[in-house]
């Protein structure tokens, strides 16, 4: 029961952290919020894991840089998407990245079913412009871009994690923060250093990075990979529910159907492939 509870708390924590982060947008913008999240998360992970003790080999540097860069840019694009589209839809669109990676690792006939479900879900998520739930196209592009970067994050993470283990997360997050913080500083400037903003950054960093990453590691070491993949496939639904409850974001019936289709495709891919959907 403990691994299951740990993973469910991690999923809720990530989505709640996203709702909390969205509240910072009026103060420091999406880029500033991303910088705060990654900066705070990098510090917390560094204190716990002490990555400076690692001696990198030459062949480990490039995959690790790719991992950190994809992590930073993925978060940047995801928060940019949250400016204009609901949380549940942003998470669903982003989830197409790891879903694609999982399907490509198998190439069985059944995978065409998951592809069709995912495509159907994408179509349902974007209703016609004349409907009451039309999506901002820029937000959709940012969310899909975040999904593509999530796919790269998985590929680079597997290459780095095989040799560096858990230190990959700490070092990669530090690299991501080094890339994103200058961008956030250009947008938000001195507002990033206000005490109440820094306090919020600590909360976001804890909820979105330090706590869920630690709990996910507990789950990964005690849970079968397929069960882990199935449960993480519920993230789009959790995001939609959290967005509805906390941010009062409403979705149309078709959009709820789209989230269900993408979730079903992710669960199907997790049960029929050897590569589980990886965490953010």
Helix percent band:
over 70%
Kindly report how far apart the N and C termini lie.
23 Å
Number of structurally distinct domains? 1
Q: Tell me the fraction of residues in β-strands, as a range.
A: under 5%
**Counting H and I runs of at least 4 residues, what is the number of helices?**
12
Please write the string of helix (H) and strand (E) elements. HHHHHHHHHHHH
- Cα Rg: 18 Å
Report the uncertain regions: none
- Averaged pLDDT, please? 82
Oligomer: single chain
Q: How many beta-strand runs?
A: 0
Given helix and strand content, the structural type is: mainly alpha
Overall shape: globular
Largest sheet composition: none
Main attributes?
globular, 280 residues
Task: Explain what the structure shows.
- There is one protein chain.
- The protein is mainly alpha-helical.
- The protein has one domain.
- It has twelve helices and no strands.
- Helix 2 packs antiparallel against helix 3, helix 4 packs across helix 7 and helix 11 packs antiparallel against helix 12.
- The longest helix is centred in the middle third of the chain and has 28 residues.
- The radius of gyration is 18 Å and the shape is globular.
